[in-house]
């Protein structure tokens, strides 16, 4: 969980925002079901999925770190 991951996360969020804007602009110009809009939507889906996996991995590593530092006594 170094700064490299944080930078990648910020870049990914920037790409998601830019692609989202492009999709909305395309939908307003070409229609919501146009092939251009659908293609951009599919690209956006992939970026969102990548971001979701990144967040889940980060949450998992934080939980693992704290559990390893504070074992639960039964």
Please describe what this structure looks like.
- This protein is 85% helix and 0% strand.
- By secondary structure, the chain is mostly helical.
- Helix 1 (3-30) runs antiparallel to helix 2.
- The protein is elongated, with a radius of gyration of 18 Å.
- The model has no long low-confidence stretch (mean pLDDT 85).
Q: What is the strand and helix layout of this fold?
A:
Elements: H1 3-30, H2 35-69
Helix pairs in contact: 1-2
Give the tags.
single chain, 74 residues, mainly alpha, MYOD Basic-Helix-Loop-Helix Domain, subunit B, elongated
Query: Whole-Å distance between the termini?
Result: 30 Å
**Count of DSSP H/I helices:** 2
Uncertain ranges: none
Structural class: mainly alpha
- Largest sheet descriptor: none
Mean pLDDT: 85
Fold-level CATH name: MYOD Basic-Helix-Loop-Helix Domain, subunit B
Radius of gyration, taken over Cα atoms and rounded to an integer in Å: 18 Å
| Number of domain units | 1
- List SSEs in N-to-C order: HH
Question: For the record, what CATH class applies?
Answer: Few Secondary Structures
Q: What is the number of E strands?
A: 0
Portion in helices? over 70%
- What would the principal axes of the Cα set say about the shape? elongated
> What portion of residues belong to β-strands?
under 5%
- CATH architecture heading: Irregular
